[in-house]
Amino acid sequence: MPHTRRPAVGYLLTVAAAGLFAVNGTVSTLALQAGIPATWLTALRCGGAAVGLLVALAVVAPGRLRITWREVPFLAVFGVVGVALTQFLYFVAIGRLPVGIALVFEMTAPVGIALWVRLVRREPVRPRIWLALGLSLSGLVLVAQVWQGGGSLDPLGVAAGLAAAVCLATYYLMGERGTVTRDPVTLTTWTFVAAGLFWAVVAPFTPFAPGVLGERVPVSLAQLTLPLWLLVLWIVVLGAIAPFWLSIAALRHLPPTTAGLVATVEPVLASVVAWLWLEQVLTGWQVAGALVVLTGIALAQTARAGAAAQPAPAPVPETPAPLAR
To answer: Of 49, 68, 96, 248, which has fewest CB within 10 angstroms of its CB?
Structure first.
């Protein structure tokens, strides 16, 4: 029996996922300010999400967890670059930049994807990609306010945000290839496992004192304090696992291009949350620049819309939901 698409449900699920990701940016900022290094926070998020997804699949559909040795190298690279490094670089960026601005830099990934498939894969792409590129670059100039002594933003934060965009683009491109043979849920589960193992080797928790998770930290809401482990639990469950499932569910009702366009609301929501919660105020130029960048991202998302009707070198399935943040 064919599945009935309900676009309204897809829009609702996508916005809900974007909202959770947006709140997660502020929660992660609080955890970083509390003293958890970006490497450890990334390891906790990747490892926690991997365990949660593994348990869920083991209960619901254990047969989907089977992998072959031939898949291991691909999953390893996908997990390390697309998940582990994307999240780490994002945490570095939000530790030095306003959350919404960091997301604007990271979410330029679709522009890079469209350029990659046009210049490297030689796939047909609509001419609007060049307008998208111009708008994105112009918007980033406004966001960074480069006329203020070389820029008003932390250089390392900007570099981390742009590097995160490259890694996120890699996540999408490898996801296109990976979902040819695997469903997005299983693929993302194993990439999180790979990411968790990567951080276990690169940044082991040997010097990490688990007792620090029990310390209460201020959350900037009416002098309220919460134990740090609660923030970490939010980052794993409501900042990774839950929005991932919502994003995947949305793809049952919306084409990936449409879902991607709706998801560009995330930097806007993240900026509002950070403004209300952390009092991160953006300048008028930064708001204008962010809107210009988002317009460029929207154009880049639709630049490949007509490519499906053209012969392609390989089948291009629906892109998995952007869990890499």
So the answer is: 68
